[in-house]
Amino acid sequence: MNFNFDGFEFTGLIAPGSVVVIAVALLFPHVVRIGDPTVTIAVAIVVAYIVGHLVSAIGNLAELALQKMRPTGPASLSVGEWTGRYISHDQEPRLHSSVRVKLHRSDFSDEADAEERRTILKQMFLAVVASGHGQRVDTFNGLFNLSRGLAVSFFIAGILGVVSAHYQAVLWSALAIGLALFRAWKFRDAYSRELFQQFLLLEL
Fold it and tell me: Dihedral of the CA atoms 125, 127, 130, 135 (nearest 10)?
């Protein structure tokens, strides 16, 4: 079996899955059997990878629900609100006149709906990736996924703490959730700003 996981799999899947695996091992030690160290480590990595996929699925559903309750990110803002938050006023004309985003000029108005804004952002992302300058965008996106995954995995750890009556673990999990959500918000904002800036560099 090949264990050469790439960066996305580690940051988005294995790390959050490991939190749940470690929480189970610490809170329910009677269900964990330690055998040969090499085999145990290999099994733990595979289990963390599988659990990480489940955590990621929960994170996707949670984010969808949160977006409906309190929309965040550039797709939830009007086009006019992008200026000042992601681009400066002198950069605005370059964005509006971009030939890389093949939409009508009217789509850059404040009347553009959320679907039109998502299309603009997707075309911007594809243009940046195609140019070979998407590394920092991918990095911030990976860190956002990691933070979101950690928030979900510590939430699960908190539930396990309640079930096992380890309330100190619940308190630590709650603190970790708060920090992870704060980091997720920061990295989402950094991702959006980097996407706009890298895209505008293509227009120079």
Answer: -40
